[in-house]
Amino acid sequence: MKLNRYKNNDVILGDKRNARELIFKIIVFLCFLILFLRLLYLQVLQGNEFSYLAERNQYKLVKIDSPRGKIFDSKNRLVVTNGTGYRLIYSLGREENEEYIKEIAKLTDKTEEIVRKRIKYGEIFPYTKDNVLFEDLDEEKAHKLIEIVNNYPYLEVQVYSKRKYLYDTVASHTIGYVKKISEKEYEALKEEGYTPRDMVGKLGIEKTYDDLLRGRNGFKYIEVNALNKIEREVEKVKSPIVGKNLYMGMNMELQQYMEEEFEKDGRSGSFIALNPKTGEIITIVSYPTYSLNTFSSQISPEEWDAISNDPRKILTNKTIAGEYPPGSTFKMISAIAFLKSGIDPKLKYNDYTGYYQVGNWKWRAWKRGGHGATDMKKSLVESANTYYYKFSDQIGYTPIVKTARDFGLGNVSGIDVPGEKKGIIPDPDWKKKRTKTVWYRGDTILLSIGQGFTLVTPIQLAKAYTFLANKGWAYEPHVISKIEDLQTGKMEIVSSKKTVLEDYPESYYDIINDALIATVDQNNGTTRIMKNPYVKVAAKSGSAQNPHSKLTHAWVAGYFPADKDPEVVFVCLLEGAGGGGVMAGGMAKRFLDKYLEVEKGIEPVQYTPHIEPKTTNSTIQTSGNQENEDSGEGMGEERENEERETGETTTSEGEQN
């Protein structure tokens, strides 16, 4: 019985071993089957895809930069073009190599630590696989780096189109510059075909006309070797389209001359000259200027600090974004408002005291003893403040505010340069919102002479005087006059929006024009320094309060020839220069002489107008022979005192409340 039991146990054990062997064989078979099926899948079913991926590792799709359009001046002088730039590119996700770090540091004049930081934290753009270690390499360093990077697959010296500003600092605020697109700009513009490495306009006409200038990029496939170096171009997928050329109405000879005159003078300021018949800008100065070639490159922290902290506010385009009280250049607006309100231009205000009294407050003239019997023409010729005190107090603020806004003040001019400010033409609503106080008679008086809260930009004032020169119409000022399409060979003439003032009869303009000519031609005129034997000039000077100095801002605005169709409107502003007639008028006179020489072939003549000594009520002190007409000082601008003394407000009709 025991023997049989043992035999039965052996049978059971044998069966178990056989079962385990069978299970093992099945598992092994299944593993081989899975491997076989996977191999079959990879080789047969996925073969085409892996072949494609292998080709993708061998070939690269690269961008072909489109040549950016060039910029010319009115005489077809080349102003902005393209050159060759070099940048060192590093592919992300690769280990650092001490050998090439040392060589890069040596060739770029950087420390090894800086190179390491640039590799780790360089100008990384999230949409690309590389970053820019260093940009704007000079040609010699770039060629030396090329010899090094051939040994390292993840370094590349990239050649790109670099903007070249041939006049560098001239018209810098207007022309602007280009720089690599920012992440924010790319997100906004990628649907329009922009790529992460595109250069885009940052300021000036480079920004306004960026879409026309940049053209359209092309693309091509290149074959690379194991070291990631280019072997050959395989296929051009899309050819680049060159950007369009721009032609400015600006004459760079006049522009450069005027900037040199500002440099000699040393003061910050603005000068603008435009063609009133087209709105084309002839000259547009904002001084001081800055280097476009520096800003389009990798500007150093030291350079940036020096420019951004300069008290002269170098980066502010003073022509379109500098807001200043217009002073007596505004009086032509008030005079037209007087005419519109029914005041006879021959009606005289008798000023024999040198002030106009409101309650207990005396609003003073600049001329001690007053201007005597003064009509509208004399008020403009001598810049007689008391005339404007009297009649603005009579008609109220409403006609003056409306006329100013009709003539483009308190609003952008529409110039094709970004960054324009509106200025301020105040009224009671504006004052209440801004200061939480009511409008007083003194506010109207200050408004009438371009002081108080009133602020304008030089370009706005130029547009206002364009309405005057054209007797009621003006185009929006614009820098670009023509656009050239190199693909089609067509030249497009640029025209801007035209505004016509319907509510002002031609006789109004004739009255003001006659007075502004006399302001230049007569010995008692405040802009007599601009008198010229070859051309009739109409001009009005102004001096405006300067919160930073006792010396006022100097203005002059006008046009020529004033006895026939004017071809130039001009405005000059000098910050803290004192009297406008001599200082700003002198600068404008130099422009007039140069313009006649360059455009008409007329050599400048030495002409010294008769300038009589003045007596003034003003408390401000000026140096040398500077005029102090309409300085705005000593006229009762202390608003708190005026309001306390008079306790009076006015309606738009000038009635006391």
Describe the structure.
The longest helix has 44 residues, at 2-45. The protein contains 23 helices and 24 strands. Helices cover 37% and strands 20% of the residues. β15 and β16 (361-364) form a beta hairpin. The chain is elongated, with a radius of gyration of 37 Å. The protein has 2 domains: 84-216, Penicillin-binding protein 2a (Domain 2) (Alpha-Beta Complex); 262-646, DD-peptidase/beta-lactamase superfamily (Beta-lactamase, 3-Layer(aba) Sandwich), CATH 3.40.710.10. The protein has 657 residues and is α+β, with helices and mostly antiparallel strands. It starts with a helix and ends in an 11-residue tail after the last helix. Strands 2, 3, 4, 5, 6, 11, 19 and 20 form an 8-stranded mixed sheet that branches. Strands 13-12-24-23-22 form a 5-stranded antiparallel sheet, sandwiched between helices. α3 packs across α4.
Task: Supply the CATH class of the largest domain.
Answer: Alpha Beta
The CATH architecture category of the largest domain equals 3-Layer(aba) Sandwich
Report the biggest beta sheet as strand number plus sense, adding barrel if it closes.
Answer: 8 strands, mixed
> Helicity level, as a percent range?
25-40%
Radius of gyration: 37 Å
What is the averaged pLDDT score?
83
Any idea what the CATH superfamily of the largest domain is called? DD-peptidase/beta-lactamase superfamily
The total count of helices amounts to: 23
**In the residues, how many domains can be counted?**
2
User: How far from one another are the termini?
Assistant: 138 Å
> How is the CATH topology of the largest domain named?
Beta-lactamase
> Which regions contain 5 or more consecutive residues with pLDDT less than 50?
124-128, 613-657
Q: Note the overall shape.
A: elongated
Subunit organisation of the chains = single chain
Structural class: alpha+beta
| Count of strand segments | 24
Sheet-strand content, in percent, reads 15-25%
